[in-house]
Each structure stands twice: as C-alpha cells, then as structure tokens.
Amino acid sequence: MRIDIISVLPELLESPFSHSILKRAQQKGLLEVHLHALRNFASGKHKQVDDYPFGGGAGMVMKVEPIAACFEHLQEERDYDEVIYTSPDGQLLDQALCNELSMKQNILILCGHYKGVDERIREKYITREVSIGDYVLSGGELAAAVIVDAVGRLIPGVLNDETSALFDSFQDSLLAPPVYTRPAEWRGMQVPDVLLSGHEKKIEEWRHDQSVQRTKDRRPDLYNKWVGEEGE
Length: 232
Ligand code: 6GU
Known about the structure:
Alpha/beta knot, two-stranded antiparallel ribbon, elongated, binds 6-chloroguanine, alpha/beta, 8 helices, Trp Operon Repressor, Chain A
C-alpha cells in the first residue's frame, strides 16, 4: 500500500511512522508513506496556503489552488482509491473503516488545518472525510498519523502470528481481555490461576468471558451491537 499525505506541517509526521510495526512494514516493502509539504505547491512570493474566509469570521481557510496543484501532480502518477480529508466533521474512524482501508492500494490524505479547507476542494476531489473522535485537534496531522497506524498494521503480512490483529480489541466488536506477564505473584496480587493452568480450551473460554464482561461494563454500545451480531 502507498499512502501520500499532504500537510502544511509535514514535520509533525516525521516520527510516527519511523518506529516499531510501521517501520517494519515499510522495510518489508508492504507500506510506503510519502509526505508532501503543501507550501511547495503554493505560488507567489509568500507561498500562501491560507486566506481570509469570504463572508468574514474568525480563522483562516485553506486555499484551493495549492491543494489542486498538489493533487493533480500526484494523480498524474497514479490513481488513488481514496482521497481522504481529515476533519472533525468527517465519518468517525472505527475498526470496520480501518479494515476497509487496509485493502486499498493507493490512499491520499489531505490534513485539514486552520478553519478548514475551501468547500470546493471537498466537492471536487475528496472521496471520504474522516474524524478520529468527537474532540477538536489543532490540525489533521495527528489524525492522519492515527489513520496510517491503524490501517498500516492491518495490511496482510505486516503483523506476525504473535501480534496478529485477529485478537485485537474491536476485531470481533469486543474489547480485549486482561493480560498478565511474569511474575505470577506481585505484592500479593495473583495472576488468575486459569492462565497458569496450560489448559488451552479453558484459557480461551476465560478470555472470551472476560472480553464479554469488560465490553458489557465499559462499552454497552459495543456490547449491544455484539449481542445483535452474534447472540450469547
Ligand atoms: Cl481529523 N481533525 C481535527 N482538526 N480535529 C479532529 C479530527 C480531525 N478528528 C477529531 N478531531
């Protein structure tokens, strides 16, 4: 998969993909991430990428021309399966959307900034608007990093058996069960006996029960969805 990210602050995105699983995905040739500074596509002495909103009001708006120039430059090279705009008014990112995006070949992400982007960009180029939660970030870069991380680890071959996404929270609409490692007793706190028993079937049942209970307690919304999907 190739992901191109367009941003007014590409420096913000230099570190998140350079470690751990996403680093390995790139080394294995399964993922390419390319950052593009929007300012390089702006013209004029000041390389202006934002301007005052028509009709007045606070904040600046991302201009049409630099974004169009950047999109058209990239789209000359390849077709994009998705052109994503990160914005608090987008579709909420969830595991189902991550799974869907992980099947794509080429994804282009425009990071929202300032008061947002001129609406004509959204109308003409954007295929999907994505938000990472109901709160406001100073810019779309961190949201783009979240999307790339959550999607990148799902690309086939990126995770091995040990880190398999099959056991993640949310992958079957349930939260993950509690986990423990050595020592088996710490300050009088014991690891549940079943996990030390070596009895695989009982361990699996325990984990499933814990997942169900945890989801019921913490995320009744997910729990009701799960009951609807699978029944108990
Ligand atoms: Cl994608 N952008 C911004 N600026 N804030 C957000 C967001 C995105 N998702 C949640 N909050």
